[in-house]
Amino acid sequence: MKTGPLTESELEWLDEIIAKYATDASIIDVSELDGMLTAILSSPLEIEPAEWMYAVWGGADNVPRWASDRERDRFVNLTLQHMSDVSDRLNDYPDQFEPLFGTREEEDQELTIVEEWCYGYLRGVAMSDWSGLPAELQAELDNIALHGDEEKTTELGKFTAEEYVASIDSIRPAALALYDYWMDNPKEAPVKQPIVNAPKIGRNDPCPCGSGKKYKQCCGK
Known about the structure:
Blueprint: H1 8-21, H2 30-41, H3 49-56, H4 69-91, E1 102-106, E2 109-113, H5 115-125, H6 135-148, H7 150-153, H8 161-169, H9 171-184
Antiparallel strand pairs: 1-2
Helix pairs in contact: 2-4, 2-5, 5-6, 6-9
């Protein structure tokens, strides 16, 4: 797998593939993918690639029927390369970390679109247990949720233009602060209890309850 940031043409290809196979349950563009990967990298518990790859498409039932193995492999490889690049920036070069926000042209101006990135980030958050954040860090997560949670976005209608711009400017430092916190305070993965296959009890065996009766005449009725 190649390393380093994706080229513009590679990002555009990823965006086209996501749009090609998008469903109501999946992410919808490369900005949402970037937000989701950022949250997964910031998770208090490790999330396996197979798990989050399914989540990209909204579950195993929504994984695309790829046009070819080459298309599938290129999507996976570019996604992993991009994730590795985001990880390097978060961990080693935080001054170079920039959320991959979208843009659109309106009245000859280029506007920054942060909603999809924030939706993706909250998708990634939902894949792990983020409970227990201190109040100041919960406030940072709320800054992101302002633009990614439909129940909270109504609050933006009350913002002045200056407050709205400030809320966008707060997303990047919020993501960095949340990453730093969970890297310093990871949670322990729950211990999976082994599955014990108990021996099958025959109908004429003594009942395991200790009654002295045959199983078929006691608990096996």
